[in-house]
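Practice problem: Glucuronyl hydrolase
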Amino acid sequence: YGYTMMYRETGLERYLNQAKAIADFLIHHPNFPEDKIPYWDFDAPDIPNAKRDASAAAIMASALIELGGFVDKKLRNEYLSVAEQQLITLSSPAYRAEIGTNANFLLKHSVGNMPSKSEVDVPLTYADYYYLEALVRYKKFVLGQ
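Answer key — structure tokens:
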């Protein structure tokens, strides 16, 4: 996310290259789940039973949508495909809370700091923020609205 933003603001190619390298690492990691919602840590010892992190998926989806605007068509399609799957999964009942539940947060199942056992499998403000940002970016950049 940060390197894409730095590229947008500076135009320096090294930031774009780093953003693409990070995206490639995440998308092609052997422990990246099929539904595209990352584990709290790709090296968690209890995969596939490790906690998932909706906040990480929301941040990643938003970043991939923006990054897609700076790369060639092949990479753009790859990034958007992953982001779309993340948004679909985050919008499903497994992750999207019903209105009036979940302390009125949108997303369930985020992880703040697993090693300290702080904010584990809870809603997080920044998860909702990046989820909404990703939806707005998708609507603007992909749907052209």
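Discussion: The beta strands are 110-113, 118-122. Students who identified this feature from the tokens alone can consider the problem solved.
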